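To fix ideas at the outset, we first show an illustrative case, written as a sequence plus integers encoding its fold:
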Amino acid sequence: MKKIKVGIVGYGTIGKRVADAIMLQDDMELVGVTGRTYNWKIRTAHRKGIPIYVVPGHELDGKPGINIAGTIEDLLSKVDIIVDTAPKKVGAANKETYYIPRKLKAIFQGGEKAKVAEASFVAQCNYDACKGKQFVRVVSCNTTGLCRTLHAVDTKFGIKEVYATMVRRGADPWDTDSGPINAIVPVLELPSHHGPDVQSVLPKIAIFTTAMSVSTTLMHVHTVTCECKRTPTVEEAVELFNNTTRIRVVYNESQVKSTAEIMELAKDIGAPRGDMPEICIWKEAVGCVGNKLLWIQAIHQESDVICENIDAIRCMMNTMGAEESILKTNRALGIPDRGFAEH
């Protein structure tokens, strides 16, 4: 079997996780990653044996513990596809500078605007629509979480409209420069960008979103109110979420009462890095009022999009279908098998 040769531009929160995930796939080869800044992440990549390529103006030669394999141009000449995990706006610039002239396939992240790509991607929702495309954007962690759960609900009950509020973490656990520290900061824009972003994947979903940032680093939390076309029951909804891949139902009766306990659970079950790539829904926070289905879900912002990047690689290279890729990715990354539903 010929392996897909993959390069990663950027080696931060998402890039390093995508790199680890690629190295677990038997149908992919990680050719290398780019480095811009000398730090522990690049030194760790070197220790893992990952070839490191430099971006012009960000030389790493001569730094202790780093061997340079070449320039970004050298990396691009060796790969079938690039996963661009550079900071927002840098990916769009890289597209113009590097990927278009080389007619190279590239995957962008949710920090970029939807217009950077031909399509936005969530594997369970629109895999087939993205097959073979040159440029695809894996949507943000929040949008990925909303799309996974809303797609399942729409498939089962049909959706008339959705109202959701994003309670966003103020910073990632390692980030000492961001905040807030002692404030709740509302997004003073209605709707927040999350609703239109969901529609870039699920265009038929009528959704209105609001958002705020709070003083935590662990996860995002969403409250979702969904008016359904068919009257749901709590039991049906919980069964649906239990049987949908990349969603995990957690229970107050098991003392999983908060995002802190979800992240501790991830460590206790031996998840890589202590990550929780599944969207977690509290069983006790699923409710029904007439045709309205309500639930609360938690999103681990560092990891839920990693499996999406892996599936996007296969999708764009057109090597296998959605169900096969999702199951293959899940098993390689240790995500429990669930049911599979697609329109």
In short: The chain has two domains: 4-139+305-333, 141-299. The first strand starts at residue 4 and ends at 9. The CA atoms of residues 162 and 226 lie 4 Å apart.
